Amino acid sequence: MPRINILSPHVADLIAAGEVVERPASAVKELIENAMDAGARNITVEFTGGGAELIRVTDDGCGMSAEDAGVAFLRHATSKLADERGLEAIGTLGFRGEALAAISSVSHIELSTRERGAQEGTYMSLEAGDIMEMRPEGAPEGTSIAVRGLFYNTPARRKFLKSDRAEGAACLQAALRCALGRPGVSVRCIRDGREEFFTPGDGRAESAAYALLGRETALGLLPVTAGAEGGAVQVGGFTGAPNTGRGSRSMQFFFVNGRHIKSQLLQAAVEQAYKGTLLTGRYPCCVIYVTLNPAAVDVNVHPAKTELKFSDERAVFNAVHYAVLGALSADRPPAAAAEEAPAVRFVSAPPAGDCPRAKPAARWTAQGPERERVPEAPPQGRSAAAPGRIVFHSPDANFQTAFDLGANAAIRPEAEEARPEAPERERAAADFRVIGEALGLYILVEQAGSLIIIDKHAAHERMLYDALMSRDAPVHSQQLLAPELLSPSPECAASLEANAGRLAAWGFEYEPYGPGVFALRAAPATLSGEEAAAALEEAAEALAASLTPDIESARAGLLKTVACKAAIKAGMGSEPEELRRLAEAVCSGRVRYCPHGRPVSWTLTRKELDRQFKRIV
């Protein structure tokens, strides 16, 4: 039987170092956070050889006395936590007292520091955590710490480091995240002797975003400023316009009380706000700052402190979701350069309400979420409906989609009367001229000195989808000429049996037709038998996706298909009034993206046309 041994402090420190310092970027993050906790207003970060050769962080913070410097590299030595009560509300970036001890145990360190107001500073050198030299010296106020030969005494860890280029990029990203989280601190980053970025430290989030993310990205950001200030959960920052979507989530940054974190909760809150406006496979870029009582969040979850838990996840989710939704709905230009962009305001969560998945077509106003409304009357060539009911006809008049809007439904344009800028929007929307159609699919519109090209299928599809989503009424169903047989997977079959009532309300009527086979007898009016079978399986699979099925997402996916099939098709002619109503919806800003995220229009300015024809250069 193997004997149990007590590890030496040195071996224990090497093991702990692996938890805190996974790679050079981890050391960069920890050292910058220490500088920020020390009250620094200016920080310079330098690294060479991907950070494995040298990392130097210099700050103008409070500095350390000789006594504090002598114990700073011991495990669990910290100035940020005094007793267990401090864990209940952590307000600093660091608190565990492990970073310096972990870094020093696997590197050579040189430290120069002077406490504010002190006559002299202190110099220290350490090797593998042991102090080799300590003496007084002249030094500026603040602290400069140089880490050399990281992992020199743990060859296994050093062997698994990536190339200098890759590790250097990770160090740069770590420094960028720290700088982005604290716009009031000026951070200069130098990589292999070359300055990579510099932030002004003026306290404006837009300045930091412009300096760190670049001009092109910053110009595509919308300020998150909707809602009222105050509240238990405050949210601010920026989110990207839908047309700036990226192929990955690498440009999503989330900060809680100034700390950069990784959070699937906040990620889902942002991405759900983009449903129907962002192409599949594209992800929004965002810089989201969440501020809440430190007692309402637990950061003592992981040694790297990038994961945390909220005491009220729903409140945080709603606050972020509605803030981003408000930014996307607001009629304002993208955030411009730092000198032009408005200052960030923090907003709070709506005073009441459940998860926003129950309000897919919500628009945030001063009074709370408001549903988009459907057009006032059917266009020429389409039949009117009874009060409280709207009917959409296909241009070929072969079928129609009808659904009940309820006895008290308000069939009119968007309720803009609550918004002070409504008259200006209405005048702008009215000031357009429909030139005609092109290629059987596109509407040509002239407005405000620009030529707007509208995809009428995409615009019509969006209008139908918004109308279908605006009320929870059953979808109009029609009997199929011949039953459509489908053989779903066992999970899908179980979902079909368990959700028969809900799917019937969505227009599907089916029954078992032998082992593992179902006969679909009725479907939403716009779908053919084959399309209906595919849509039914998709909806059933969505309902079976988890123990708590996302019913609203399943319904939204189905209605996207229904709206797409009912919308005007390429080559179908349209009456002038129908073209005008589609153009009005787009020019007013009510319709900007199809339900699948494709843009519905493209604008060509007079200046761009003049340049094309060499009228200007």
In short:
The chain contains 18 helices and 27 strands.
Write a structural description:
The chain has 617 residues and is an alpha+beta fold. The protein is 31% helix and 24% strand. The protein has an 8-stranded mixed beta sheet. Strands 9, 10, 11, 12, 13 and 16 form a 6-stranded mixed beta sheet that branches. It has a 4-stranded antiparallel beta sheet with strand order 21-22-23-27. Helix 9 runs parallel beside helix 10.
Helix content: 25-40%
C-alpha end-to-end distance: 86 Å
- The helix tally amounts to 18
Q: Unreliable stretches, pLDDT < 50, 5 or more residues?
A: 331-427
Question: How many DSSP-defined strands?
Answer: 27
Mean pLDDT across the residues is 77
Dominant shape: elongated
Rg, Cα atoms, Å: 30 Å
Biggest β-sheet: count, sense, barrel? Answer: 8 strands, mixed
Summary keywords:
617 residues; alpha+beta; eight-stranded mixed β-sheet; six-stranded mixed β-sheet; 27 strands; 24% strand; elongated
Set out the fold topology.
Blueprint lengths: L8 H12 L3 H14 L4 E7 L5 E6 L6 H6 L27 H6 L3 E7 L6 E7 L2 E8 L4 E7 L6 H5 L4 H18 L4 E6 L2 E5 L6 H9 L1 H5 L1 E3 L9 E8 L11 E5 L2 E3 L2 H10 L12 E7 L4 E2 L10 E2 L2 H17 L17 E2 L13 E4 L2 E4 L17 E5 L6 E5 L17 H9 L1 E7 L3 E6 L2 E6 H14 L7 E10 L3 H9 L1 H6 L3 E4 L5 E7 L4 H15 L7 H16 L9 H12 L13 E5 H7 L5
Helix pairs in contact: 2-6, 9-10, 12-16, 12-17, 13-15, 15-16
